[in-house]
Amino acid sequence: MQERREIKYGKGSRKCRRCGTHQALIRRGGLLVCRRCIREIYSKIGFKKTGSRGG
Predict the structure, then answer these.
(1) How high is the pLDDT of residue 54?
(2) What are φ and ψ of residue 2, in 5° steps?
(3) CA 41 to CA 7: how far, in whole Å?
(4) With contact defined as beta carbons under 8 Å apart, do 13 and 7 qualify?
(5) CB distance 27 to 13 below 8 Å
(6) What whole-number distance in Å separates Cα of residue 49 and Cα of residue 39?
(7) Which of 5, 27, 42, 43 is 20 to 30 Å from 51 at the Cα level?
(8) Hey, what domains does the chain have and what are their CATH numbers?
């Protein structure tokens, strides 16, 4: 059996700090949190909800 090598680049190299998924990551400012987790914690980390979509 071969050892798994560490992924050093690409989507597989980064994961959400909260849930561990590799999909839909927000990397801006070093957040490294997926969009689903951001929706749950946005007020705790200083974001404010502005406006609405599909008005």
Answers:
(1) 61
(2) -85, 150
(3) 28
(4) yes
(5) no
(6) 10
(7) 27
(8) 12-41 (4.10.830.10)
